[in-house]
Write a structure and sequence with these properties.
mainly alpha, 2 domains, DUF212, Divergent PAP2 family protein
Amino acid sequence: MNKGVYIALISIGLAQALKIPIHFVKTRKWKPDLIFQTGGMPSSHSAGVSSLTTYIALKRGLPTIDFALSMIYGLIVMYDAQGIRRQTGELTIKVNDMGELIDKAQHNKKVQFEEKSPKKLKEMLGHQPEEVIGGAILGIITGTLGHLMTKK
């Protein structure tokens, strides 16, 4: 494996690990299992592609095809992380709500449907825009440090 791959993987791992203390500061709840979950602050998707793109830019330069490919790939990944995947997560919440409603109706329980706000639930697959930006900033820092540490 090359150094760019190592730096991107370290950035992804660091982003996943940072989700635990950030969540604790926000909620005062310790959830170590966040290290294995999607969504949350910072985006490990954004951190990984941003660190790789930064490393390539510093190592090979901006006018290279390597940088161009990495930049476009990174933008697509970040757009997907906060767009399509987030929408899928919100749809999942609605489907889960319908499943609970059907279970109650089949067991002749009092059926009361309550609309839930997707922003308050942790069934999210994707990221809010600020989580993507946070991951990108972490990735830029990691990519820069990785380049500086591996420089000959």
